[in-house]
Amino acid sequence: MHAATPDHRCAQPFRLDERHLGGPITAKAAPGWDVSWQSVDTRTYFLERSTNLSAIPAFVSVQSTIFCQAGMTTFADVTATNAGPLFYRVGIQE
Length: 94
What we know:
There is one protein chain. It is built from no helices and seven strands. The chain has strands spanning 12-16, 25-27, 33-39, 44-50, 60-67, 71-77, 86-93. The model is unreliable at 1-23 (pLDDT under 50).
């Protein structure tokens, strides 16, 4: 499952659970989670989080204007202090 897409028209959610630990999303020693995604250095990204995809709105902003590097970007979401389930969405900011 891909955490981000280079298509600026959409952003894909991905679920955080025990299958992802040690993968693109990892627990931190401090509160929160590290969220990683493939990125390019010519784009600026945003990160959103949800605990309930049925809620309206489903996602809340974690951070906007994330400047990335080519390859992989990791963002520390220190505001996520509960065990989940958590859903993240990464998108390209226009």
